[in-house]
Amino acid sequence: MNHSQAQFNSQPESTNRIIRIFDTTLRDGEQSPGATLRPEQKIVLARQLAKLGVDIIEPGFPVSSPGEFAAVQQISRELQGVEIVGFARAIKGDIDAAVRSTMDAARRRLHLFISSSDIHLDFQLKKSREEVLEIARQMVAYGKQFVDEIEFSPMDASRTGRDFVIEMVEAVIAEGATVINLPDTLGYALPEEYGNLFRTVRAGARGADKVQFSAHCHNDLGLAVANSLAAIQAGANQVEVTINGIGERAGNCSLEELVMAIETRKSAIGAETGIVMSEIYETSRMVSRTMNFPIAYNKPIVGRNAFQHESGIHQDGLLKNRNTYEIMDPEAMGIPRSMIVLGKHSGRHAIKHRLADFGIELTDDQLLDVYNRFKEKADEMKIVPDDVLVRLASESTATQHDPYTLIDLQVLAGTQRSRIASVTIRERDSQEERTLTGTGTGPLEAVIHCLQQAIPVSAEFEDLEIHSLSTGEDAHGEANVSIVYNNQRYTGTAVHNDIILAAAQAYVGACNQMLMSIQDTDSEENTEQLA
């Protein structure tokens, strides 16, 4: 054992509290309008959530449909390493369905809820506090016959009088509840208020010292993560979250934001989680694609711009030391390293560095010429993708650096036939031009089939994103294409008022980026071998 290993092994174990992550993406997250999942999609996502390392999964609302029941049942049978939750209203039929669907889980929990705020009782349930209290008692006692672990949620707790919350919590603890969740159902609370709710209930409710406390926050005022952290600091040791913060209205507390806040500031918070950070990005992308919910560019942690920098000052600092403008390591979360985005605020240092990544070395005069061309292009495109930058370098040096160039594209579309595409590609080394045709159920599929014939790479076509950049008849669209080769992701971007052409250019750009990266790596390896 070397000295560094001995030093590591001799370090004391962490004294931080472990915060359990309760994921409700497949239940509360799915209640977001338009995010409905098929049972088979739920099962795939549940597997990924287990891989991510969440402690508890709430896979759905079993009583709501036969498909939902079947999905919860299969997830319970398959994922034996994760605690599975059966969600139910304080109604016997709901409880029976939740109990039956989770029967095969290695560890399971029943999650019961009923409204507690006066506005809910008066206008929704039309019941008195006494009636609701009795229902809560009876249904917890009924559920306790079947399961040991029962979580109880007084819905809209943050807008409920503290005395009644305490009375309700005492009642359900007496009947066997083991986890008390105090939800901020409408995202109304401020962090100080929400933290005080936990302190007050934990101090005032008899039996509170014998149960666990959980936070469930919505994001209507953008405070879900802040409120969840306040709850942790007030004694909660479980937080209910969703991937990408998806959920009703403005969504739920975001798993990735909460986990990385805890991870980044664990010494200040005194807590940590068991989440596998390297799976965060892939899980986020999988949920986004499956639910057809795009991720905002400026979304913390997983948004496209979260670790990208255009400012020349920031880029210069990052190239010298990453910690100058980054407080987290994106690669530790499985996020591809692409910290520098080239736009009109970028400087020559960043341009030179990016071209060097593709093995392109420029003289000072050539760099100045590329820089001037780049500034003109940046005003037009906002963000200058790698394939465009390489083309600018080719123009300045009178040398084609791109392995392949798209010369021409034509697409024939119609309502009663397959779409037919034709592309002409020029290969750099031989200068040969080839024209190929392909078909597809849509024009994009037909074009990609052509390009896959024209550019012989064994990469997997992973994803295509199309975004509108303007409105009107002359609107421009941006296409982003990602391909995967040897577990490495390569992305091409193009902007054009013909979105099909933009997608084709983006695909060619991604392939070129991959090929130039491989060539540069091979060149470095050969140099090392010769040395």
TrEMBL record:
| Name of a matching Pfam family | HMGL-like
Pyruvate carboxyltransferase domain sequence ranges: 19-281
Source domain of life = Bacteria
GO terms, biological process: L-leucine biosynthetic process
Per UniProt, the keywords (alphabetical) are:
Acyltransferase, Amino-acid biosynthesis, Branched-chain amino acid biosynthesis, Leucine biosynthesis, Manganese, Metal-binding, Transferase
Task: Specify the enzyme's EC class, one word.
Answer: transferase
> Which molecular function terms from Gene Ontology are attached?
2-isopropylmalate synthase activity; metal ion binding
Q: What is the E.C. number?
A: 2.3.3.13
Q: Pathway it acts in? A: Amino-acid biosynthesis; L-leucine biosynthesis; L-leucine from 3-methyl-2-oxobutanoate: step 1/4
Q: Name the protein family.
A: Belongs to the alpha-IPM synthase/homocitrate synthase family. LeuA type 1 subfamily.
Question: PANTHER family in the record, alphabetically?
Answer: 2-ISOPROPYLMALATE SYNTHASE 1, CHLOROPLASTIC-RELATED, HOMOCITRATE SYNTHASE-RELATED
Which named protein is this?
2-isopropylmalate synthase
Please name the taxonomic classification of the source.
Bacteria, Bacillati, Bacillota, Bacilli, Bacillales
